[in-house]
Amino acid sequence: RRPRPLDPRRVHGHAAVGLLQPGRQAGFYEAALLAADGIIAVSQELKSKIVERFGVAERKVAVIYNGVDVAKFSPGSRDYARRCLGIPITKSVILAVARLSEEKALDAMIKAVGCIENRDVQLYILGDGPLRGFLEGLVTREELENRVFLMGGIPHHELNHWFNAADVCCLSS
């Protein structure tokens, strides 16, 4: 089976340059990177890996960090956000916003919540992806149905409430 063609609109980070792909596919990424006139990396670490692993000239790779639209994402009342979302005011809330895929290591985050003795800690995972069924099964097997919630995809304009409602934001990848 041939790998799908590169689609820069849908990938970034390590996945964008095949660093998470098995051996043979790396050649497709290498050819595309070497042929490009310029490459944008989202971190200095990713730039270094592109230069070192694929032999791309350092001058061809610019680092442009991910930004935040402060008009859409700004601090607000935690209690108000929780009331809007139906989240208990008295719980400790961990928030993860991620594609439900292997490289995000959400299974480790779910298991970690199971290790926390304080039963008032809740994890809300926003996003969808190929591991949804697996993660739902994990939540059930670990008996965390009242502490871990897979909320699915959330419209972008609703994310600010979720960030304001959280005590901690976690990116397990």
Task: Please summarize what this structure is.
The chain is 32% helix and 14% strand. It has helices spanning 26-35, 44-54, 78-85, 106-115, 132-141, 159-165; strands at 39-41, 61-63, 92-97, 121-126, 148-152, 168-169.
Topology:
Elements: H1 26-35, E1 39-41, H2 44-54, E2 61-63, H3 78-85, E3 92-97, H4 106-115, E4 121-126, H5 132-141, E5 148-152, H6 159-165, E6 168-169
Helix pairs in contact: 3-6
The helix/strand series, from N terminus to C terminus, equals: HEHEHEHEHEHE
Q: Which structural category do the helix and sheet elements fall into? A: alpha/beta
Number of strands: 6
Estimate what percentage of residues fall within beta strands: 5-15%
Mean of pLDDT: 87
Model regions low in confidence, pLDDT < 50 over at least 5 residues: 1-11
State the end-to-end CA separation: 28 Å
